[in-house]
Amino acid sequence: MTTTARTHQPEFLSGNEFSIPTYAVLAQDGSLHDGAEEPDLDQARALRIYQAMIATRVLDERMLAAQRQGRLSFYMQCTGEEAAVIGSAAALDDDDMIMAQYREQGALAYRGFTFDEFMNQLFGNEMDYGKGRQMPIHYGSRKLHYMTISSPLATQIPQATGYAYGQKLAGEGLCTIVYFGEGAASEGDFHAALNMATVHEVPVIFFCRNNGYAISTPSVEQFAADGVAPRAFGYRMHVIRVDGNDVLAVYRATQRARELAVKDNKPVLIEAMTYRLAAHSSSDDPSGYRSRKEEEAWRDKDPITRMRAWLEIKGWWDGDQEKALQDRLRADVLDTMKRAEKRPPPPLDSLVTDVYADVTPALQRQLDQLKRHIRRYPEAYPRGARSLDPVLSAADHVEDHAADQGGE
Amino acid sequence: MATINMLQAINQALDIAMAEDERVLCFGEDVGGFGGVFRATSHLQEKYGKARCFNTPLVEQGIIGFANGLAAQGSVPVAEIQFADYIFPAFDQIVNETAKFRYRSGDLFNVGGLTIRAPYGGGISGGLYHSQSPEAYFAHTPGIKIVVPRNPYEAKGLLLAAIRDPDPVLFFEPKRLYRASVGEVPEEDYQLPIGEAEITKEGSDITLVGWGAQMDVIDKAVELAEKDGISCEVIDLRSILPWDEDTIVESVLKTGRLLITHEAPRTGGFAAEISATIQERCFLYLESPIERVTALQTPATLTRDNQQNPKHPKIPETSNAPRNY
């Protein structure tokens, strides 16, 4: 419905009538901006957030190195965006659904995904919940309400609207948060999702990580508008822009967004202004499209050092605790990586399971034929042949794995 | 048993499914109060409320994305795409998301509750964009099931099976038969099996395979062929994916001849897949080449659809050839 006054002059609006400010609470030195209020964030939760931020940074640094050593095929870092991702996840109920794009491992770390679980996915071994099918960083966990990552961009956005509509009908007071980058917001699925969310009054939070780049394409070549936030007006959606490197602002904004979503069935768009300090992925080299000077300017706004400064002012954290945490996490990453690397890949039979709920006769025939073929040419398929040999295969499976598949 | 048309049968199936399970939701463009442009969802909103039967904005990729999310959450969405010709904006959501949801998550998550209904096919003066049969595009994709009913009885039983199936199902409804196909349909709840073909007529000289509205065409063709003394065995494939190889193989081992007909254009149509499989499995029993009767390799037209489509006389004309081979 359009409710509008009548005019008799052909006056156009340009969009510049609206100016969306950036909500910021925490300065880089750990003090609060003038007039800003601290959110209701107790010590335990603040430290849980901070430790997840450090865990994510440590994991990212080590796994990129592992990729460079040739131990891992691919990796994507969250570096620079930890406050945006973890600060928002922390403002939710732990049973709320998270639908991520691919750079939100911090939210998963916050929810309690262990380094073992990360590593099993990264190395696609037999304990990977995804059964070695997807590229590294495509995590998922049913028990932690974190939807398995899918490479196509923005497909998760209308799915979040649908998921949250189901949550509303179920009446359990839960919502869904969906993460995406400012580049993915150019996809049609973004528009479809936001429009359907306000039309159907769905408890969903759309969280845009505006990190400046879609691989090499800067946001000024992605859209002419003032960021992504103004699009919310087109859907009559609540919207806020926050300093994405400011964990307190992100936390408070998401907390308020969750209230709007769950109590009032008002979907919300949050645009977090941040910066992808790392490359897009291990296959990317940012020196081809942006300056070191630009990167350094953002490194000075590191969200982790900013939060640490605040924690130290509060007296909740000190250098000794920092060192102990870093040492423990670095050791854990190495240990879990070594364990995960040694585990064998998932069994050959898992090639044909989960295509459908039950293996179809045609698929079973294809699998049987493949096994006959591998047995005939074992030298061409050393891993496959090994997994088909009962003695060698048993030797690979020395660990006794509980059948915990990230479910309940 | 009441005599009803295919739309009424579909409406009954939706009604039964919604009454039985409150997680079943019906939505799509004009599906709500209006009951759909073909009226397949008539009265469902009155009966089950706006939260469970509703209009969506006009955005197919959004409808299926939304439906994928709902199904992942545990709801049982029955999403309507108003015409199969307009399913392509949702192609990414179906092929990259719906079909791969279970596999890519190692079965942590699935969208098995999802059913996508879409009217397909020609014969209603629909021109290029209200006539297409897109089943072959989707048949190339592991992870989805594709079902096409031929009459009201089949439509009701297969749709109920599709809604309750643990895998996502694309349910293509032959819109030419929506009101034209009338038959006896039990009022109660029943299901027909997905993945199983049905031999609708036994015969000895040739096996004719089709699905959906083309079964009507085959029946007319059989009349012509049998006047010429050709005994036809007729099989309704019913499910395009997964498809029932064994039933067709057994029939062809008996008749030695196979003709497949579909409304979609020839190249890469599903007849090609059937043809390849049957020659692999029945080569020494085939007495003539496998034949295909399909639409021309052109877009559908408004004024020439009668000529370009696989009309019934084309079937005996083609099937005479193998008999004399």
UniProtKB/TrEMBL annotation, chain A:
Residues 385-408 are annotated as: Disordered. Gene3D superfamilies: 3.40.50.970. Its EC number is 1.2.4.4. InterPro entries: Alpha-ketoacid_DH_E1_comp, DH_E1, THDP-binding. It comes from the Bacteria. It catalyses: N(6)-[(R)-lipoyl]-L-lysyl-[protein] + 3-methyl-2-oxobutanoate + H(+) = N(6)-[(R)-S(8)-2-methylpropanoyldihydrolipoyl]-L-lysyl-[protein] + CO2. Residues 51-347 form the Dehydrogenase E1 component domain. Its cofactor is thiamine diphosphate. Keywords: Oxidoreductase, Thiamine pyrophosphate. Residues 396-408 have a biased composition (Basic and acidic residues). The keyword Transmembrane does not apply. GO terms for molecular function: branched-chain 2-oxo acid dehydrogenase activity. Belongs to the BCKDHA family. The branched-chain alpha-keto dehydrogenase complex catalyzes the overall conversion of alpha-keto acids to acyl-CoA and CO(2). It contains multiple copies of three enzymatic components: branched-chain alpha-keto acid decarboxylase (E1), lipoamide acyltransferase (E2) and lipoamide dehydrogenase (E3). This is 2-oxoisovalerate dehydrogenase subunit alpha. It comes from Halomonas cupida.
UniProtKB/TrEMBL annotation, chain B:
Gene3D superfamilies: 3.40.50.920, 3.40.50.970. One of its GO terms (molecular function) is branched-chain 2-oxo acid dehydrogenase activity. It is an enzyme of class 1 (oxidoreductase). Its cofactor is thiamine diphosphate. Residues 301-310 have a biased composition (Polar residues). Residues 4-180 form the Transketolase-like pyrimidine-binding domain. Residues 301-325 are annotated as: Disordered. It holds the Pfam family Transket_pyr. Its EC number is 1.2.4.4. Keywords: Oxidoreductase, Thiamine pyrophosphate. GO terms for biological process: branched-chain amino acid catabolic process; response to nutrient. PANTHER family: 2-OXOISOVALERATE DEHYDROGENASE SUBUNIT BETA, MITOCHONDRIAL (PTHR42980:SF1), 2-OXOISOVALERATE DEHYDROGENASE SUBUNIT BETA-RELATED (PTHR42980). The branched-chain alpha-keto dehydrogenase complex catalyzes the overall conversion of alpha-keto acids to acyl-CoA and CO(2). It contains multiple copies of three enzymatic components: branched-chain alpha-keto acid decarboxylase (E1), lipoamide acyltransferase (E2) and lipoamide dehydrogenase (E3). This is 2-oxoisovalerate dehydrogenase subunit beta. It comes from Halomonas cupida.
